[in-house]
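## Example pair
The file below holds two records. Each record gives the amino-acid sequence first, followed by its structure token line.
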Amino acid sequence: MCMDRILLSVTGFNPHRWQELLAQDREVVLEPDGSNDPSIRYAVVWKQKPNVLARLPNLKAIFSIGAGVDHILADRTLPDVPIVRVIDPNLTQHMVEYIVWRVMDHHRQGLAYRAQQARKVWNERAQRTAQDISVGIMGIGALGSAAAKALTSLGFHVNGWSRTERKVSGVNAYHGESGLIPFLNSTDILVVLLPLTDQTRGIINYELLRELRRRNGLGGAVLISAGRGKLHKDADILRALEDGTLKEASLDVFEQEPLPKTSPIWGNPKVFITPHAAATSNPAHLVRPMLEQMRAADEGKPLLNLVDRAAGY
């Protein structure tokens, strides 16, 4: 048996392409050999099977297939080894494209024009400039910072909120509990890119949405959620849409995925839905940097983009 194997443990999709690309460098298995497999050095995971990582006594590092790591940290038997986050230019570009697309669609009144088209109505609507609109990004990490840069280049005012202080060029920065309400009060379009932690679970609720600026150049507050589904309460978003707290929403993530067919979100005319597709992890782009990190670790070099377990991201 090779003593330098990779465990690929994923649920929810076919791992074949990941296995094929990882196997170009070293042996890959989908299950450990028994309850104490000493041959596994690295694990590449997405919603891994419970307790599987605790059975690997020589594990050196865990790599997350997706940008989020809450699925890893949820395992209470997780061994004390480094966890590596995915930071890839391709993944970042996809997220930036999604955010710019949805911000521009709300800004340029896409929902109203689609409704007019359905009724065969020819009516030009008054249009404000980007300089009149403030976009607030909750979560100014690698993805949020890249999105902020793209939006500022288009002329939008960009606010950023994070749990701890962060400074990003061109962004009005807020942080911590004391900065949250001022951030929301100065935001017209709220973009949610936070990691899912014990502190952020359910943070996008009705009370928070009530703090968004509604008297603005858009005619109401807008929500764009592309982080993690359990950051928000779906029922609270619907309530906010029904009473005018929110004008519109673009939702890529949900409390339960796939979104149940019985969910009233499907039929809400104020919501634009995508199936957790804002930034899909592509093995063709992500496997190479994973393997490079593994080779560096074998040589005793430090791993990059490590998760802070205490912070949860």
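Second record, same layout:
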Amino acid sequence: MKIYFYTGPQCSLCDSADVELQQTSMFTSLDIEKVNIRTSTELYHLYGARIPVLKRADNEKEIGWPFNTADLEEFLQ
């Protein structure tokens, strides 16, 4: 499953989200693309105040911080 991980430089919340993501049972089957929102004005306006955000490529559903491993497991189903 393809996941977009919207992040930014020096984002400690993003680091915490990454740890949670690595603890999910589906982690090894995920295709995760980290996207720095500062590379695009549009992405910065969409996600600047909300990062970290994960977005599924298949259905475009999003989950924003704060989330835990159980939240992620449900999101990835």
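Notes on the second record: The chain is about 30% helix and 25% strand. The mean pLDDT is 96.
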